[in-house]
Recover the amino acids of this structure.
């Protein structure tokens, strides 16, 4: 991606629990396991965030957020912030995968969110590798609107009731904007041009800009009067972001390199709770640097360094759905992975049963299998991300991480020599317990 080639940044998944809590049938607190990056914590007030900064981690709807700093012109390792936001409204669970904000992404991804496309998939490679995930939004995502103080000291909210959290700004006066910087530049160019043409006229006549945006997939527009602040620049009072990034786990891939990951979608990181509407996405290699053990009331997390660069590119994302994120592995990674991973038959829901199973994860720094117990199966679950309930029984994993932690969402589950699903949630009151999605839902 244009802002990250040749750079690397440090990623920490914060422990704070944020929005999208929901009450489960058994009143257990649980949390999805991973995050993407969310700029809503500090946000970008038009041009306030410099290029390369403001990469925040959040996962699917309902995750915590952590700051990713720029790696610097010389490629130094960026600092990580770890600031979290809590806008939850109470409930019984937090998703460890969010929030990968997922509603569907651009290009009608909801129509292609399953690799099988109606064709039966008999087997896949179980993966379990940790990966860095990056997605570029379609347009500029509105996080919130806010008051600004003009150069005369008057407080106004120019965008109030014009745009709202979850909107995607596409253009300003017909000028297409793809990121925060372009949005800021467009507004200021238009306003400065207006000022030059009307410098001898009354200040009472204020110029407006026309914003075209998407709301729930529908194109809309609004006229906003930007405010000039004491720095001489114009602002619309909108907090925005243009990309998200974070750590997750690849669940499986096919012989031709089609992969599925997370077992849930990537949310937009806002209070809207929608899936991220993106126009591009990529997977990158990462190095695990930290494991924070989970404990009752505080889900654990993993941290690592994600390398955003051509040489570190692993695959391309083309789908963000409620069932997971999907795409194509690069040929080099496909060859390397397939030489090491096991090809498993796919189990249908009727083949999954309570009892022993195994989870594949790279959380120790290498791929290993950890013992689980499938304690309950809900074949008619309305929330497909919670089709099975599981319990970690492996002392090695409990000692290492306390059980299921944020960042391991998507870890494949094996039972009776078949792949049966992926881990998606962790119980907040018991990090050894959680939920999983059945593999036939992801396929």
């Amino acid at each position: 991606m244009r802002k990250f080639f040749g750079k690397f940044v440090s990623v920490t998944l914060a422990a704070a629990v944020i929005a999208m809590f929901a009450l489960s049938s058994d009143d257990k607190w649980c949390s999805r396991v991973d995050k993407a990056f969310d700029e809503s914590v500090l946000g970008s007030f038009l041009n306030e965030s410099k290029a390369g900064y403001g990469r925040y981690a959040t996962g699917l709807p309902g995750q915590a957020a952590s700051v990713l700093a720029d790696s610097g012109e010389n490629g130094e390792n960026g600092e990580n912030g770890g600031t979290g936001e809590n806008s939850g409204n109470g409930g019984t669970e937090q998703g460890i995968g969010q929030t990968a904000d997922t509603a569907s992404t651009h290009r009608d991804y909801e129509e292609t969110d399953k690799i099988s496309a109606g064709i039966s998939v008999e087997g896949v490679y179980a993966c379990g590798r940790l990966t860095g995930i990056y997605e570029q939004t379609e347009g500029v995502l509105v996080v919130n609107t806010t008051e600004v103080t003009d150069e005369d000291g008057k407080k106004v909210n120019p965008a109030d009731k014009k745009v709202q959290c979850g909107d995607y700004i596409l253009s300003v006066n017909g000028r297409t904007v793809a990121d925060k910087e372009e949005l800021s530049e467009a507004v200021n160019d238009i306003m400065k041009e207006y000022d030059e043409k009307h410098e001898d006229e009354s200040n009472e006549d204020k110029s407006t800009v026309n914003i075209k945006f998407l709301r729930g997939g529908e194109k809309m527009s609004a006229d906003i009067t930007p405010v000039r602040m004491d720095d001489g620049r114009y602002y619309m009072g909108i907090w925005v972001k243009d990309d998200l990034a974070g750590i997750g786990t690849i669940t499986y891939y096919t012989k031709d390199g089609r992969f599925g990951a997370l077992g849930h979608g990537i949310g937009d990181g806002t209070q809207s709770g929608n899936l991220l509407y993106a126009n591009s996405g990529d997977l990158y290699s990462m190095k695990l640097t930290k494991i924070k053990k989970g404990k009752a009331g505080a889900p654990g997390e993993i941290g690592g360094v994600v390398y955003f660069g051509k040489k570190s590119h692993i695959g391309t994302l083309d789908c963000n759905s409620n069932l997971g994120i999907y795409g194509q592995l690069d040929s080099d990674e496909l060859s390397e992975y397939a030489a090491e991973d096991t090809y498993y038959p796919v189990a249908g829901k009727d083949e999954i049963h309570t009892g022993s199973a195994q989870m594949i994860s790279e959380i120790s720094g290498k791929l290993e299998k950890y013992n689980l117990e499938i304690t309950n199966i809900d074949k008619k679950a309305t929330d497909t991300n919670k089709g099975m309930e599981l319990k970690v029984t492996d002392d090695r994993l409990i000692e290492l991480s306390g059980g299921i932690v944020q960042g391991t969402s998507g870890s494949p589950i094996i039972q009776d020599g078949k792949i049966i699903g992926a881990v998606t949630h962790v119980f907040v009151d018991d990090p050894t317990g959680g939920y999983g999605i059945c593999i036939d839902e992801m396929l």
In short: Confidence is low (pLDDT under 50) at residues 1-30, 34-119.
